[in-house]
Write the structure tokens for this entry.
Amino acid sequence: MLAFVLRRVAAGVALIGVISLLSYTLLSIPHLDVGRQLLGQNAPQELVDAKNAALGLDRPVAVRYLDWLGAALRGDFGTSWFTSENVLQAIANRLPVTLSLMIGVTVITALLSFVLGVWAGVRRGVVDRFVQVFAVLGYALPGFLVTLVIVLVFAVELGWFPAIGYIGMGESLTGWLSTITLPILALSVGSVAGVAQQVRGSVIDVLRQDYIRTLRARGLPPWRIVLRHVLRNASAPALAVLGMQFVGLLGGAVLVEQIFGLPGLGSMTVGYTTRGDIPVIMALVMVTVVGVIVINLVTDLLIGWLNPKARLR
Amino acid sequence: MRLVRHPLGLVSGLLLAAIVLAVLLAPVLSPADPGAASLRQAFEGPAAGHPLGFDSAGRDILARILYGGQNTLGGAIIALAVGLALGVPSGLLAGYYGGWFDSAATWLVNLVMALPAMVVLLASRAILGSTVWVLMVVLGFLVAPSFFRLVRGIVAGVRGELYVDAARVAGLSDLRIVSRHVLIVVRAPIIIQVALVAGIAIGLQAGLEFLGIGSGSEPTWGAMLNEAFKNIQRAPLLMLWPGLALGLTSGALVLLAAALRDVLEDRGRSDPAPPAVPEEAPDEPDEPGAAGERAGLLSVRGLAVAYGAREVVRGVDLDVREGEIVGLVGESGSGKTQTAFSVLGILPEGGRVARGSITVAGREIVGLPERAHRELRGTVIAYVPQEPMSNLDPAFTVGSQLVEPLRAKLGLGRAEARRRALDLLRQVEIADPERVFRSYPHEISGGMAQRVLIAGAMACEPRLLIADEPTTALDVRVQAEILGLLRRLQRDSGLGVLLVTHNLGVVADLCDRVAVMSEGRIVESGPVEQVLHAPREPYTRRLLAAVLDGAPAREPLEAAPDHAPDQAPDQAPDHERLEAP
Amino acid sequence: MKKFAALAALLTSAVVLAGCSGGQAGPATGSAAPATLSLATMTLPMSLDSKDANGSALPFFQAVYDTLVKREPDGAFSPMLATEWAYDEARTTLTLTLRTGVKFDDGTPFDAKAVKANLERFAKGGGGQAGTLADLESVEVVDDSHVKLKLKQPNPALLYYLSDAAGLMANPAEFAKGEALKTAPSGTGPYDLDQGQTVIGTKWVFKRAPGYWGAKLPYDTITISYFDNETAIVNGIKTGQLNAALIQDADQQIAVEAHPKVKTVKQEFDVQGLLLFDRAGLVTPELKDPRVRQALNHAIDRQTMLSKIRQGRGTVTSQLFGPSAKAYQPELDNAYPFDQAKARALLKEAGLEGGFTLKLPRIPAIVSEALAASLQTDFGAVGVKLVWEDLDQGSAVQRIFRDRAYSGMVMNNGQSPIDWVVVKEMVLPGLFNMFGYTDDTVKSLAPRIQKSDDPADLKKLNAHLVEQAWFVPFYRMTYLHVSDGSVAITPQDGMAVPAIYNYAPAK
């Protein structure tokens, strides 16, 4: 187990190295004239060239990458080209927003999709249809429409929640809750729909297993069989999906962050990438990589815990 | 196609087919060129030749929906194809072989997952241009990990399953095992995932349009929706058609996936028993004594089990007395397992006792509320299943599975239950109870597992044991041991045993009386000696003759895969046939 | 500076110019002294160092720095850090009289040396507006309160520049400290940046500066929050979380107007149109013929475009100069009526009966689908095949300005009230005349305008540009200053974003 984790960590370090190189190279492919973007159209070309040179953009990609790598290894991720903010500070400011969203949505998704999925899988019939319809609706409705309706109804019309902005958990717990509730709700609709469907499938599979019949034959109460045996066995595939979903949320958060005006990593990724703010993006990439490695490791460990046979050596 | 009989599947399938057909026929169906704009007509409603009206640029909405569908659906298919082609085979191999391939593939997948999509997308667009196809290929790469992880996780889970091991021992090539046995297990989750990913691919297009990095000027449903979104105040109805197209398509995909899954996985259910024999009035069996006095422990009279309108058990009379072992024999699908399940009250979904009476220890259980019936299970009636490995929950240790009924049914404390469980393991002649107690099912042998199951059945000191082919899945040496164990337990505790089997040898060896079943009814019953040596019924004679003609003793390993856990519980094993004593 | 909307469009990820505006924070009572003004913007300032000041980010800088000259909402210049100014005969020397007794936060006095240091640093500092001081030859310190700005040649826009980015006065004591000013700006302005509460890139908080030399502004605190889309801004205004903002998108304007509490002020600022760079026909030879350019002007149906694409929010025009410019002539707004027959005839005259292909870049944030499709249709109707090349925001800049790959582009152009700014940036070779085309009329008029800024010359030039069809303008777009009802916003002439001095509690 420890060896497994260590091996994964080593693989992770290699991953970080390769990803940083790949990303840096990919980032230099689109010709984003950073100097021109910074200074505007009405700046003379000499100024633009000077700006690009000042940013080191006149040097070969390989050299710039090595420079970046050297600095990054020392913990220096530089400052944003477009806002002059310290990159680490910028990420530290925005990470809690997106993490709040992702964790919130994942918890809600895990809870709701298990309840709905198990319910539908066990009861079938009308309940099943209901969950299916919900899943279809959650899936079929365009995300931005759901988000817009949620903002308009709960924030603008009813005024129960603020329509925009984010309040840190450290600043005010209730403020945090009030600003994060609607975004989480908006993001959860689609994700619950998807995972519930997967849970339902797994539950039906498990219910069909021989050992469930044997457990029934032992006279165990159905709730106990469902809660203990069905749930645990159905969790592994659902967890894999949930883990993927968690990583995917970083992308999915973009739209919700934009509509709710949340200063998170999602909208940051889009904005800074389109502009080509390499120092910021590279740091973002590093955060993402570490996140993905950790999530995948945790998912694997959890699945191993749930399913001893799949335990990884 | 059973899908046709699945209402949701039928509706969603038809809907999807209609959408695809309409989109394919876009050149024929379109009233106009999808790019032809007449700004003067922008936002206008339906007009002659333009049934859905005009969009914000004065283009025909119907034409754009149809042509946009080509890009949207085509793009989604590309994304799926790329994702499946990359994710599924690598997931299968990584899960099946594990080891370095798994590590390498997992590492690569982490790489793909961690690569920032925006960066990749912008770079690919810079190289390849900004079309919906580029976007979708990139998306295909990005969704491949979800297939990989899904498949790998499940395959790693079944890697050690008995039937896979068995197939391997039987000398099947890895390729064949993977394609025949492993692929089946991952099929359903993949199908659901495909529908979900198709939905995501379609939805993501809209999302990327929203961010201004969409499909360029090619029409797609996502682009249309985004365009509508930008004019949501001026003309909210613009959302309707692309929204409907997107919604119906992804909704239908999800429903179709669920239906497909159900159909693929429910093969067993729709065929829970052999085709019913022509309906006749249940004739009263003429077993001497049967109709008259009823045995104290188990007495079945006129039992019929039906699935819907179809009767698979059609008037069974059966008696088991205290301390007696009764064999219930018959060919595969003769209804013996259904009879046993009726007594236990664990008929599969859709099955019910249609007629008749079952008394256990003098108590009528037909019509008994489930709760009361459940009280009897474990404490009065117990069950030993056929396939030892699949009847233990792989996620829990042997010990915890033994302890659970002790605590739940008998209300024992933790320590007491543990002591009793170890006792039970000793009783079933397990040499190292402590070790087995701590083991997971996949860590013990089949014979050991069957002992554990017997121990589990005996845990609450039942009076009637129903053993359904308890030795069929075991090799010959172990069979004998298990039979010996059953006999000893029965003698020690004065159990009544109903032994469901197709093995006349076992019957001759173990049973006091035997009942022969065919086509849902008992054709002959009586003392073993009499039935085996002087059968009265032609059917019994045929049965015996067939066995003595030297049919193969059993198909040992080849058959094992058919016990794959995806098999419906009520489906009788194919290799079940009569064996010579 | 305020000028180029498209620049901002390229800088910010969403729509065109950055929006910005404000309102009062507190409850909508508006009677008590409002504590906070909460503004929204879609512009990210590259830094808060005065030398990096640019276009629509100006409010960030106005909070912390003062300019030498103040520009009133109507465009008139009034004293700020400079109390008087005067040109010499040749208009190549500008003498400024400076306000005395003004100190920076650390006690460094604001004086002529500070002005010299700031102007020189700005001109060489590599900021986007550094070019506005390109004509500045030297700065001469006369005494503590007087400086002379010597110019290489007359520049009619100089005072304007001194009321804008180039006129921002930072504490010269900070200049030696490397990059300090970027995140810790230091000026004589009415507010100080509250670094504790500011999250760069998200929200900037400015607290009233103690002992500000000038008249107090009505708000104790101003916060400027960054958004990358107007939907969030509109929702924030509706719920009162934002006090004021600028809304450019027509659909969002409809959304925000509908709310009962919201108050709006209209302003026509950007002109949207097709700028034809390639009048020499280097990329698209056909464009060399003025008749072809005129044909393009006749081919498009401006009125329909305005009513459908901008939902009628604006005024059609055929000239680049706006109503507050001296060169503006109302009759030129309709110089090119929609007349496709005439367009075809012109093309025929030019020997292009068979039509030709025009390739233009399309940046989705500027060129909506409706605009793209309708131009394609209208041009197509007269035989010009319009091909759009889709570009991502960032790479567009490179392709258009560095590679000079296109004959023109559709942009949103801020209309400067200072004619010289338009002449220099749009007409003379350079910037938006990247192929360097000119003609005799321009060559003769431009120097005279530079020297005297004579309205007659300007009108002549404008008429010439329209007649020669240098551009294909569509319409001036109405932008909406909106507030949650607690703030009265006074639009700033010639600038989409109001100065921070233009907000007051609503009565």
Summary: Chain B touches chain C through 31 residues (CB under 8 Å). The first helix of chain B runs from residue 7 to 24. Strands of chain B lie at 298-307, 310-320, 325-330, 351-360, 363-364, 381-384, 464-468, 496-501, 513-518, 521-527.
